[in-house]
Amino acid sequence: MFTVEAKQQFSNLLEKSITKLDLTDAQFEAITERYRAVGEWLGGEDSPLAKYYPDIKPQGSLRLGTVTRPWLRDDEFDLDFTFKLQIPKVSITQYGLKHMVGNRLKDERSRYKDMLGKEKRRCWTINYSDETKFHMDIVPSIPDDFTWLLAIGVPYEIAKHAVCITDNEKWNNGDDWPKSNPEGYALWFLDKMKTRHLLLEASMRKSMQVDKVPEHKIKTPLQRSIQLLKRHRDSVFGNDKDKPASIIITTLAAYAYNNEENLYDAMSSILSKMDDPTYLRIENGLYVIENPVSPSSNGYPGENFADKWNEKPGKATNFFVWLETARSYFKSFSDMRDMPLMAKSLKSVIGERYVNESLNEIATAQKEMREGGLLKMAAGTGILGTEGRAPVSNHNFHGIDE
Amino acid sequence: MSRVSLILQAGALKSYFPDSEISRYREGELTWVGTLTPSHISRGYKVRLVYARTEGVKFYVLEPKLELAPGAVSLPHVYSNADQRICLFTPLQGEWHEGMYFVRSIVPWASEWLSHYEVWAVTGDWNGGGTQPKPDSEKQDKNT
Questions:
Q1: Nearest to A9 among B41, B90, B144 (CB)
Q2: pTM for the whole structure
Q3: Are B75 and B117 in contact (CB under 8 A)?
Q4: Predicted ipTM?
């Protein structure tokens, strides 16, 4: 078992390594600039859509702060955006909405006309063929009449973000508009880690001596845990399309998180409670993982994230197999007592270069501590740190090449 | 600075590392065998410090046999790969002298060496600083 200090040290190494899976600052800036440019093209004064009060917003992992580098280095980040127009459902069809947005993107003067990918079910894809390595999925939407959500107990602050989206595989069947609420889901998610987020923000403001820390720079142990879990999933399944879905991992992890302070404790808690029958239920022989902002109630079925498990049982099996693999992988570290061994195991999931970079940074920081006269050695063990009976005085490692 | 007597060196080593073993031969020689664990998530390394008035201080990692970084053919900052004799200071610059306690110089430096070794074994990069002269300077290293 880990000592308290070992747990902290491992947690730090883990956190530093996962940080390497984030979008880089340059990527984050490029993405922000580009989605705003798309929003401007779609909804700016010259656009025929301007009169519908258009609004573009990140959704999914970019909104939740859980974007995780793709498993293969050459693969692209896949980032989702909601593009909302204030049009009443009765005044437009799904086809009409989808193509109203599509036509603007394909306009003669549009710089996006040659960047559009093949039309997808619910969105348009814009490809950026450059170093930033990402593509943007734009989901056209209109507001939903959310009184039905209020009736089943969804709070107003969440319900008011409910939208209707389009589905080109079903819109000819006369089906009602698909419902969605990515922003409501994000607010639910952020609320699950609010306590830790506020504490982190306060401490970062203090240590960075600034009035405001950019939102995307504050990552709670819940967000880090989800990144690690998604990465571990990718290490097991690669690009297998039946791998456990990010939305399921994210939802179950958020339910299990108790605002733990360090990553190790958060991971332990999440892994042990991810299959808690309160949230991962079996009802009438079917798996149910309810969308927390679209619950079932009073005969309305709600949104079930595990729907596809019931259509394709292999997906459920994959989830449970993966969860057991993740549990034993994570538990294995506590008995290792061997840094290089731990690092090798971390590399197999997080990636060689990211773990190497992290270790080199930690070692360089330790050397700088010694040069600054701050490094000490504990008597009895030899453990180095800020506490200890013996100061580590300055010196230069020497040697010969044999 | 005046020389720290070996009885004081031995007493300090025993005080800092009660579980270690020390043997001393008058004012001429001292051997210390102990275990150093450079970090909370490290294994313990069995080490030996050997001091002889005529030869200075030498430091060895006894166990385990140290693994090399991927692609490396030799350990960094050692006088001998086979003996795992490690180099902790630059003799010509007088970084260590007999007025210094082992427990406040050589031993913490050794723990630091082990810590940087562990990272090197994984990444191939030595982040501990120092110099790595070519073999022709070996003859000048009498004191280590």
A1: B41
A2: 0.93
A3: yes
A4: 0.90
